[in-house]
Amino acid sequence: MLKVKDLNLVYENKNHVLKDINFEVKNGEIFGIIGLSGAGKSSLLRTLNLLQRPTSGNIFLDEIDITTVDKKDLRNLRKKISIVFQHFNLLSTRNVFDNIALPLEIEKKDIKEIEKKVDKILEEVNLSHKKSSYPSQLSGGEKQRTAIARGMINNPEILLLDEPTSALDPQTTQKILDLILDINKRFNLSIIIVTHEMDVIKKICDKVVYLKNGSVEFFGPVHELFVEKENEIFKEFYQEINIDWSRAKQLSSKETIKLLKIVFWGKHTHEAVLDEVSKKYDVKVNILYGKIEHLKDNPYGTLIINVESENGKINDFIKELDSKVYSLEVLQ
Ligand SMILES: Nc1ncnc2c1ncn2[C@@H]1O[C@H](COP(=O)(O)OP(=O)(O)OP(=O)(O)O)[C@@H](O)[C@H]1O
């Protein structure tokens, strides 16, 4: 487990970029760091394997505070927590095989062992056919696979990925995300991924830290970010719900009409809860906005509805519906 405690980073020019950061990453988790440009995501990632020393605070890897590690133990630390850089950092004069072999050569490993390990990892990232190619002969996705393979060659406990899909087209992005999910499952490897793409968080992450101006604005499971914090965080990140609120409120201005926001989560998302409860209380439902999305393995749905009842049972209807959905908010 990786635990970050009260971490601060002040650059030499007095720029205080990370402020009292706290979070933890459990073994085998895929953990996202998200935020707007300049929020401090890359700075945070680089402190996690001490490429950038924090100004204060602690980073515990399995209870040991790595911020106290001295220079000679840094190489061992970076074998345990390895990083894949945003622009891959492949050496242009070395082919794919030799790029991946580099960390083992630095360790002065036996040539036979190097060949065996590199060939195995090449197979795992589906790149055996490109082992003799040079970086200039590779597509963006192949460069990323090479960089990930090099990051994996020393069997790290944690793999840090800086914007692994930012330079890729949507199809290649999907393939790289599948690869990340695959290595996470196969090796029970913890993966910490910096991204500015909400879709990446949705598709592969278990937990997430949302950074704003260097502070943790949210830390928790991805579905909580989407479901509970949607209004606060998403408004500044992107306008998630596209609805004409003044019209919706005007429609709901009568005493007998209420405007509701309902969130469904997990297996209940596909159940006909709304239909059943509205029939039971004889309430008319008018859907103003609706969508179902997928977060890793679970669907979640959002509905904005107004409901109308002349029989005085609208509050009973709301109470029962509230007990059957993930969350319900009376907007008006
Ligand atoms: N070495 C440095 N010295 C001083 N300031 C720096 C240094 N590196 C980054 N910064 C500043 O720290 C802030 C955070 O930068 P960082 O690259 O960590 O943000 P980010 O969230 O990763 O941004 P982006 O999404 O644009 O890559 C920015 O204001 C940046 O200019």
From TrEMBL:
Gene3D superfamilies: 3.30.70.260, P-loop containing nucleotide triphosphate hydrolases. The keyword Membrane applies. InterPro entries: AAA+_ATPase (IPR003593), ABC_transporter-like_ATP-bd (IPR003439), ACT-like_dom_sf (IPR045865), MetN_ABC_transporter-like (IPR050086), NIL_domain (IPR018449), P-loop_NTPase (IPR027417). Residues 2-238 form the ABC transporter domain. GO terms for cellular component: plasma membrane. Keywords: Amino-acid transport, ATP-binding, Cell membrane, Coiled coil, Membrane, Nucleotide-binding, Translocase, Transport. This is D-methionine transport system ATP-binding protein.
